[in-house]
UniProtKB/TrEMBL annotation, chain A:
Subunit structure, interactors included: The system is composed of three essential subunits: KdpA, KdpB and KdpC.
Subcellular location: Cell membrane
Protein name according to UniProt: Potassium-transporting ATPase potassium-binding subunit
InterPro entries on file: KdpA
UniProt-listed Pfam families: KdpA
Cell membrane in keyword set: yes
Family: Belongs to the KdpA family.
Spans traversing the lipid bilayer: 61-80, 137-155, 176-197, 248-267, 279-300, 376-394, 415-434, 480-501, 522-544
Keywords, sorted A to Z: Cell membrane, Ion transport, Membrane, Potassium, Potassium transport, Transmembrane, Transmembrane helix, Transport
Function: Part of the high-affinity ATP-driven potassium transport (or Kdp) system, which catalyzes the hydrolysis of ATP coupled with the electrogenic transport of potassium into the cytoplasm. This subunit binds the extracellular potassium ions and delivers the ions to the membrane domain of KdpB through an intramembrane tunnel.
HAMAP family for the chain: KdpA
Source organism (scientific name): Streptomyces bugieae
Keyword Repeat among UniProt keywords: no
Membrane topology summary: Multi-pass membrane protein
UniProtKB/TrEMBL annotation, chain B:
Pfam families: E1-E2_ATPase, Hydrolase
Binding site for ATP: 367, 371, 401-408, 419
Catalytic-site annotation from UniProt: 330
Intracellular or extracellular location(s): Cell membrane
Species, as recorded: Streptomyces nigrescens
Compositionally biased spans, kind Basic and acidic residues: 1-10
Record's bilayer topology term: Multi-pass membrane protein
Superkingdom field: Bacteria
Gene3D superfamilies: Calcium-transporting ATPase, cytoplasmic domain N (3.40.1110.10), Calcium-transporting ATPase, cytoplasmic transduction domain A (2.70.150.10), HAD superfamily/HAD-like (3.40.50.1000)
Protein name per its UniProtKB record: Potassium-transporting ATPase ATP-binding subunit
Enzyme class: translocase
Catalysed reaction equations from the record: K(+)(out) + ATP + H2O = K(+)(in) + ADP + phosphate + H(+)
């Protein structure tokens, strides 16, 4: 089988699987968040934290819940890392330094999973399982809760109530993420991923050198790493490590896990607002951009000029050598566009232009299809902007899903779209201008610039993957990137929830022939166009000085 | 009038139609339902220049965040040019940035200038008048400005009415041309719905006593002056929202440009990214086109209404008009012609149609009501019966129509002919011992059920008194109404006909006119309830009204258009006043509202799409030296970095002037579904906005590179 044919079959199988699963999963998630019943274990959790899961919350209360929960989580994770040497199963690792502990705590709370450490040589069993893995679940559940709250804002009228945060958080974890990752973990174990709490194996290799083989609960963390669009690998090599992804099937499964919830959430959205078609318009916009990027990166990598590339049939340096060009490109596009950040190949090694596509994938705001929950709410905000820009052209004040987009709504949406560009651009500018940042850079020229730009783009958009190329474990980077991750995660949530509250208070505007039809292909096209133009205009200069300067010079 | 001359005249006029029932079809729609607008005269650009320069005041400019940034940019580049006076590039950029600001102010000034002309005309009408105030029955002369609410003033023929008020005594014909432009005088009388008079209008005949209802300085004419001058202009909700979005885009671009400096330093392109170049880039990127034209679009929208003799009391109302989803239309005068007209003659058994027609015409000659006239005309047109005149018949005794008898007729040659309301005619026949034909009742019922009004025709001759037949009076739906309602439906607007008729009649007319719904036997309370019901469902409702009892509904409706002929209570309650008092205009108002929003959206899209080309001009110009690969982005093949940046700046300034006529006129609007409209406008302004600057910048670059010493 030729590599190209294999790649085509792989993508086809992936899309087929997603198409098959999105419907039952999307419907199931809608049912979970709409259900009035509580499971026994859920009741037990509510009782133990003293939360009333049936109390409706207005947006400030909902937001307060998120912020308190996340602040407590950050503190806990920070302390856990600082005292890990005194806890059992420490594997003899030292406590993490304050700046790195902050960075890691921020990273896992913000569903970013940027890692300035190598898991296998820094984090103890307890830190990995009780700290990081727990956040892998709940930080994802927080994202989904915010998305559901926004969806309720569209679906409800004449009320400020957005549901109950504690109930949404617990249900997302207990009924969606845990069961799904359980299934995924079992399949991964079946593929050969490891799952144990053993001690480090010290072995002598064939060439006679010593090697330490790290054990761990890898398969379970792997499943939620991808399913919850987290991305923090158990090992530094992430999904390129054979213990994390043993074979081609597990590789494809991991890509599937990255995409399955983000691509199913629009169905949940459609179901909850009472129009499946509206969900399809959103998922189509996500899918078009994702698929376009897959094609672009794969083609650019195969077409990369140079003798070595031609002999290898593509630019293979830094790629997942076991599965080839297509599987690397597919994984990379999927991980950058889902805010996951797990990798099976070195993004730094992609050709200049495809590196640019991966960057752009994050700059779009992680909404194609984006992170669990955050992808949906980000895309809905973009839909509001698109409706506002183009909606005027049908001669009515813009409305989306029967809700008027007027001053308050546009103010909140505008604030939302300002945050990440501000963090990315200011962060990058600081890093390359200040000596603290410059010293850590190991590459020069356009490529060096791309690396810094990638780091801040990844952190601010809560992706977590890295272009590498500079020592990120410095107080400067740990602190600034940590701040980018926290601000890039929680500031947008403030605006999303305020917007949800404002939408829920409105009375619905009935649809007429004069209403902009947001479930039609024309709107999907408009949404994609608005997204690309708005993002493109914001980041064009930065992209020109990094990936474009590098990619066009050859 | 002699018999002969009438005859002759009559014979000559038989083949010319005497009635023109469609003479009052809505105006302004002769070109297929498009909203037209006033012409833009390039001379206005020159005459408005002083105003544009006056608007450079930073306190004024700060209201438009986008243009304020350009103003700051102009100052910065000018300072930089002064510091390095030898550099032609700095000077040229500074000049073009100033021009960008001035062009933006010019657009606003031109839009306002058109209102000013109208305000001047109005001011002439508002000459300081002397009022004849009644003080305990005695007249005293006071200046018009000293009148207080509740004062009684006397006006006689030739007097200018000193203030807004209601006629409390007398009847007069009033010349309101100062306000409406309509020279035909109107009747104003005490009591009823024709009692309101407006200050500044002139009494032509008779004497009236007016009770002043408005303080001086707040009169209708004062408000009108403020409105057309734009002094009372406040930003509308949608305009504010758009401004926020534009401001946030400006911040994004500000960030992109500010951070570009450290990026450039890193890349080793310090020299190519001087502050002048960065300022030029910023001005090119921020949405200056829409930022410059936004307020002109709003003013021009109000102006388009004024040109149609509609005064909107707020911009908010104009915007709401675009969103209206339910139109309440009064049947009479809006959907149907003011009066019922005879449609056919139906004989009872034993008589012929011609007999009925003849008797009907004869009996209607003394009926001067429009209904009566229409019977005479129908008999002439359909049955070839020559219209006879009262003088023609000697010894005829005419029975004119009165509201009491509800009958008219004539006694001539021993024959007595009558026509009138069913009950009255039956009573008349029975009084004289005559028989009412059995099928007369069936015929009248049938006509009633069809939505018409039956009138009976009876004759008493040698065969005794008897009913001959029935005249079918019908409401005549104005020509073209069905098409208009179809258009509205395509735009997603539901039409509801309001009428005092019974449900049967109402349904028949509603079906004929093609409205979506009707409200029969409507009382003001019913109307109010209907509006509230529609609004509860999230709909925006527009209506017209003129009576005092319409006032609550006018106030409740999102768009309430009061007729100028109406009471001052109605005018006070509505948020628009139609000076022509033409209820059909409501449809045009909706279209103008939509056109306003579309123009805003189209120019915003155009403005943002423009940026793509500007990046392709400026980024390679800045960085091709540091990274030669970036020269591949210079797809327009611009001559030199300087000419590329300059061309982008010049294009950015000139496009504002080029789009002024479009902003003032509004983009072409045709009623169609939202989908079609979006597709069309996206094609023109989205795609057009993407492509146009590539061509424009290239052309400007070609011209610049021809100048020796540059490029």
């Amino acid at each position: 089988m030729s590599p190209v044919l294999a790649d085509v079959l792989q993508v086809t199988a992936l899309i087929g699987a997603l198409a098959l699963v999105h419907r039952p999963l999307g419907d199931y998630m809608a049912a979970v968040y709409s259900s009035k019943r509580h499971l026994r274990i859920e009741k037990w959790i509510y009782r133990s934290v003293g939360a009333n899961p049936d109390a409706e919350m207005r947006w400030p209360a909902y937001l307060r819940g998120i912020l308190i929960f996340s602040a407590v989580g950050t503190l806990f994770l920070y302390v856990l890392q600082r005292v890990q040497d005194k806890l059992p199963l420490s594997l003899g690792f030292k406590p993490i330094t304050p700046d790195q502990a902050f960075n890691t705590a921020a990273s896992f709370i913000a569903n970013t999973n940027w890692q300035s450490y190598s898991g296998e040589v820094a984090m103890s069993h307890v830190t990995q399982t009780a700290g990081l893995a727990v956040q892998n679940f709940v930080s994802a559940a927080v994202g989904m809760a915010v998305a559901v709250a926004l969806v309720r804002g569209f679906a409800r009228s004449r009320t400020g109530d957005l549901g109950n945060f504690w109930s949404d958080l617990v249900r997302g974890t207990v009924r969606i993420l845990i069961p799904l990752s359980l299934i995924a973990a079992i399949i991964l174990v079946a593929c050969g991923a490891i799952q144990n709490f053993g001690d480090i194996h010290h072995i002598t290799t064939l060439t006679g050198s010593k090697q330490a083989i790290s054990p761990g609960a890898v398969a379970s963390q792997e499943a939620i790493k991808d399913l919850g669009t987290n991305g923090g690998g158990f090992f530094n090599a992430n999904s390129a490590h054979p213990f994390e992804s043993p074979n081609g099937l597990s590789n494809l499964l991991e890509i599937f896990l990255l995409l399955v919830i983000p691509f199913s959430m629009p169905r949940t959205f459609g179901k909850m607002v009472g129009s499946i078609k509206q969900g399809y318009a959103i998922v189509a916009a996500m899918g078009i951009v994702w698929f376009g990027a897959v094609i672009a990166v794969t083609w650019l990598e195969y077409a990369h000029p140079g003798t070595a590339s031609h002999l290898a049939g593509g630019a293979m340096e830094g790629k997942e050598q076991r599965f080839g060009e297509g599987a690397s490109s597919l994984f990379s596009v999927s991980t950058t566009m889902t805010s996951t950040g797990s990798v099976n190949s070195f993004h730094d090694s992609f050709s200049g232009l495809s590196g640019g596509v991966l960057l752009l994938g994050m700059m779009l705001g992680e909404i194609t299809p984006g992170g669990v929950g955050s992808g949906l709410y980000g895309m809905l905000i973009m839909a509001i902007i698109a409706v506002f820009l183009a909606g005027l052209m049908v001669g009515r004040t813009p409305e989306y899903l029967g809700k008027k987009i007027s001053t308050r709504e546009i103010k909140l949406a505008a604030c939302y779209i300002l945050i990440t560009p501000a963090l990315v651009l200011i962060g990058t500018a600081m890093a390359i201008a200040l000596p603290d940042g410059k010293e850590a850079m190991t590459n020069i020229g356009a490529h060096g610039f791309s690396e810094v730009l990638y780091a801040y783009t990844s952190a601010s958009n809560n992706n977590g993957s890295a272009f590498a190329g500079f020592g990120a474990n410095t107080p400067f980077f740990n602190t600034t990137l940590g701040l980018c991750m926290l601000l890039g995660r929680f500031l947008p949530m403030v605006f999303v929830l305020a917007l949800a509250g404002s939408l829920a208070e409105q009375k619905p505007v009935p649809e007429t022939a004069g209403t902009l039809r947001t479930e039609k292909p024309l709107f999907t096209g408009l949404l994609v166009g608005t997204l690309l133009i708005v993002t493109g205009l914001t980041f064009f200069p930065a992209l020109a000085l990094g990936p474009l300067a590098e990619g066009l010079s050859s | 009038m002699t018999l002969e001359s009438t005859k002759q005249e009559d014979d000559m006029s038989t083949d010319t139609p005497t009635r023109a029932p469609h003479s009052d079809v809505p105006t302004g729609h002769k070109d297929g339902g498009r909203v037209g607008a006033g012409l833009f005269d390039p001379k206005q650009l020159v005459t408005s220049l002083p105003d544009a320069i006056r608007k450079l005041d930073p306190r004024v400019m700060v209201k438009s965040p986008v243009m304020f940034v350009v103003l700051v940019g102009s100052v910065v580049t000018t300072v930089l040019a002064l510091k390095d006076p030898g550099s032609w590039f700095g000077w040229v950029i500074a000049v073009w940035l100033w021009l960008t600001v001035i062009f933006a102010n010019l657009a606003e000034a031109v839009a306002e200038g058109r209102g000013k002309a109208q305000a001047d005309t109005l001011r002439k009408a508002k000459t300081d008048t002397v009022a004849r105030r009644l003080n305990d029955g005695a007249e005293e002369q006071v200046p018009g400005t000293e009148l207080r609410i509740g004062d009684l003033v006397v006006c006689e023929a030739g007097d200018i009415i000193p203030g807004d008020g209601d006629v409390v005594e007398g009847v007069a014909s009033v010349d309101e041309s100062a306000i409406t432009g309509e020279s035909a005088p109107v009747i104003r009388e005490s009591g009823g719905d024709r009692s309101a008079v407006t200050g500044g209008t002139k009494v032509l005949s008779d004497r009236i006593v007016i009770k002043i209802t408005t303080k001086p300085g707040e009169t209708f004419i004062d408000r009108m002056i403020n409105l057309v001058e734009g002094a009372a202009r406040q930003k509308t909700p949608n305009e504010i929202a758009l401004n926020i979005l534009l401001a946030s885009l400006t911040i994004v671009f500000l960030l992109a440009v500010v951070t570009l400096k450290p990026f450039a330093l890193y890349a080793g392109a310090d020299k190519q990214t001087s502050l002048i170049v960065l300022t030029a880039l910023l001005v090119c990127l921020i949405p200056t086109t829409i930022g410059a034209l936004l307020s002109a679009i709003g003013i021009a929208g109000m102006d388009r209404l004024v040109q149609r003799n509609v005064l909107a009391m707020s911009g908010r109302a104009v915007e709401a008009a675009g969103d209206v989803s339910t139109l309440l239309l009064d049947k009479t005068g809006t959907i149907t012609l003011g009066n019922r007209q005879a449609a056919e003659f139906v004989p009872v058994r034993g008589t012929t149609e011609a007999e009925v027609a003849d008797a009907a015409q004869l009996s209607s000659l003394a009926d001067e009501t429009p209904e009566g006239r229409s019977i005479v005309v129908l008999a002439k047109e359909k049955y070839g019966l020559r219209e006879r005149h009262q003088g023609e018949l000697v010894d005829a005794e005419w029975v004119p129509f009165t509201a009491q008898t509800r009958m008219s007729g004539v006694d001539v040659d021993g024959r007595k002919v009558r026509k009138g309301a069913t009950g009255s005619v039956i009573a008349w026949v029975q009084e004289r011992g005559g028989e009412v034909a059995e099928d007369a009742q069936q015929l009248t019922d049938a006509i009633s059920q069809a939505g018409g009004t039956p009138l009976l025709v009876a004759l008493e001759d040698e065969r005794g008194p008897r009913v001959l037949g029935v005249i079918h009076l019908k409401d005549v739906v104005k020509e073209g109404m069905r098409e208009r309602f179809d258009e509205l439906r395509r735009m997603g607007i539901k039409t509801v006909m309001i009428t005092g008729d019974n449900p049967l009649t109402a349904k028949a007319i509603a079906d004929e006119a093609g409205v979506d719904d009707f409200l029969a036997e409507a009382t003001p309370e019913d109307k109010m309830a209907l509006i509230k019901r529609e609004q509860a469902g999230g709909k925006l409702v527009a209506m017209t009204g003129d009576g005092t009892n319409d006032a609550p509904a006018l106030a409740q409706a999102d768009v309430g258009v009061a007729m100028n002929t109406g009471t001052s209570a109605a005018k006070e309650a509505g948020n628009m006043v139609d000076l022509d008092s033409n209820p059909t205009k409501l449809i045009e108002i909706v279209e103008i509202g939509k056109q306003l929003l579309i123009t805003r959206g189209a120019l915003t899209t155009f403005s943002i799409a423009n940026d793509v080309a500007k990046y392709f001009a400026i980024i390679p110009a800045m960085f091709a030296v540091a990274y030669p690969g970036l020269d591949k982005l210079n797809i327009m093949g611009l001559a030199s970095p300087e000419s590329a940046i300059l061309s982008a700046v010049i294009f950015n300034a000139l496009i504002i002037i080029a789009l002024v006529p479009l902003a003032l006129k509004g983009v072409q609007y045709r009623p169609m579904s939202a989908d079609k409209m979006l597709r069309r406008n996206l094609g023109i302004y989205g795609l057009g906005g993407l492509i146009a600057p590539f061509i424009g910048i290239k052309i400007i670059d070609l011209l610049i590179s021809l100048i020796p010493g540059i490029g």
